[in-house]
Amino acid sequence: MTSYKEFHRRSIEQPDAFWSEQAQLIDWHKPFDQVCDYSRPPFAKWFVGGQTNLCYNAVDRHAKTRPNDNALIFISTETDVEKVYSFAELQREVERMAAIYQSLGVKKGDRVLIYMPMIAEACFAILACARIGAIHSVVFGGFASGSLATRIDDAKPVLIVSSDAGMRGGKAVPYKHLLDDAINQAEHKPGKVLMVDRGLDKAFNKVEGRDVDYAALRSQFMDAQVPVTWVESSDPSYILYTSGTTGKPKGVQRDTGGYAVALASSIKHIYCGKPGETFFSTSDIGWVVGHSYIIYGPLIGGMATIMYEGTPIRPDAGIWWQIVEKYKVNVMFSAPTAARVLKKHDPAFLHKYDLSSLKHLFLAGEPLDQPTHEWIMGELKLPVIDNYWQTETGWPMLSTVRGVEDTKIKYGTPSFPVYGYDVRIFREDGSECDANEKGILGVVPPLPPGCLTTVWGDDERFVNTYFSLFKEPLVYSSYDWAIKDDEGYHFILGRTDDVINVAGHRLGTREIEEAVQGHPAVAEVAVVGVNDALKGQLPVAFAVVKDASKIATPELVAALEKEVMKRVDETLGAIARPGRVYFISGLPKTRSGKLLRRSIQALAEGRDPGDLTTIEDPTALEQIKAALSA
Ligand code: ATP
Ligand code: MG
């Protein structure tokens, strides 16, 4: 068996040989003539001349050989619906949806915006675009009309697919009025709006001539056969906007062939999934994880995929594990924020069910702090793997690659560069850092298959945003701060905008958060740098405690604050000690579960919190304001 190091080296030194082997994992209608065309850096084209189709690879090819195997398992604990679709059934539903699209005039290259809750029809809607070569742009259901309007104007869809409402925590969350508002605000007007009526909002408004009903159209196309449209490998498959944690979201454009190959190979090598097995990703189709590891990745790999509408704690904190037991889930994918939520509940929920089918749990999206990593791995007694990546890359950049070698898992690190990524850590002048020296994580281009090929409609923004950090060399910048240890393990220290400069010492927010998190009373924490006349900046911490009785009196609060500070002193040194530790009951996060540090920092410095369109719970900011003024 080759070592992972060897495997990675080959992917960088002999990319053509390496990737043409990986390309055998998918079906091609017409074989490619060239593995990579990198004649116009930093733009890379993968599998030039090849023709394929994402929907064919995700559905049809399995429906041919294993028609009755599970493909899509839809579970809603919100509406108490559970429905399993075989590959053959999934193909039929996708063909019906594709026929509806065609009847509404959607053609290859047209954009279809999908603004939907986590229901099976959203999966059909996505795959139907791929089937006919239309470009989908999924917008997280629950974004308000302002966010939706900017995305409508950027993607200019001919059709929008939506639904009357989502459900969360037992309550219907109406979508349609938000969509109508967004269309009113937007300059671009879609020709048609296809409505999947769940019967959750009886009073939703229907616009004559524009809005059409999915169920009525579907009944006309029950026997529809819509052959796949073969597309060029480099034809765009979708547009997806980044989470908007740091400001205006960027419209990531993805190709077709490179993406299919990257996903197929990641299912095999990183996720160790096999045809016939089951993949459960707890993300949402509105995020990149949902695109790659709810819809396309597992299905391309011939696995069944679970689409779950609900929260991790309803009806109780055992629901995910109940699903794992019932459907014999083999691979699970979630976010550190979910692990921290579970940590606040009784660990007995993790032990109530038979989890023997589960091989790995992957966590991505935010730093997985060492204490949480150790805790969840100990409770579940299986490898928990930290995955580092971005909307831009579409699949992991840093991970252990256990399909190739069982390397040691270290807590708090996403480990090694994934094959295909020539990851290096750079100083601000563009030179490379030594081991254990902090710097900016970058990738020497060409970016591997699967990564963004450009910013939608804006090649210049692609180059300026991602490749212009240094004059020399040409490097893709992640805008994350990182360090590599002597054994080659990478640690993400925070975003480059979040570095705290205390009297000339540059500290990553993540480092301090990690230290605070190490206190047994703390469930979650955000650390931001606040202007300080003396030291330049001073770290300030906002911590959520596991048990509110620990902060029941001012004396207890003061004592806990001291203990937390002491903990930071002991782990990082007094230089990193937060000037204040505030205790609150929830942190402001984006809808995808990422900390909104820039808003917290703005409040702590007495500024306006800025653009809040992506915030999950605005009351969390009120708490911070209250804590600061107390
Ligand atoms: P925007 O780019 O619009 O500001 P965003 O960066 O939050 O939003 P995403 O692409 O969803 O949008 O998130 C990628 C970022 O999430 C990474 O750049 C990194 O900062 C963080 N991240 C993801 N996974 C990890 C991980 N395993 N460890 C540490 N940080 C992570
Ligand atoms: Mg980003």
Automatic annotation (TrEMBL):
The chain crosses the membrane at residues 112-134. Gene3D superfamilies: 3.30.300.30, N-terminal domain of ligase-like. It comes from the Bacteria. The keyword Transmembrane helix applies. The keyword Transmembrane applies. Pfam families: ACAS_N, AMP-binding, AMP-binding_C. This is Propionyl-CoA synthetase. It comes from Azospira oryzae. The lineage of its organism: Bacteria, Pseudomonadati, Pseudomonadota, Betaproteobacteria, Rhodocyclales.
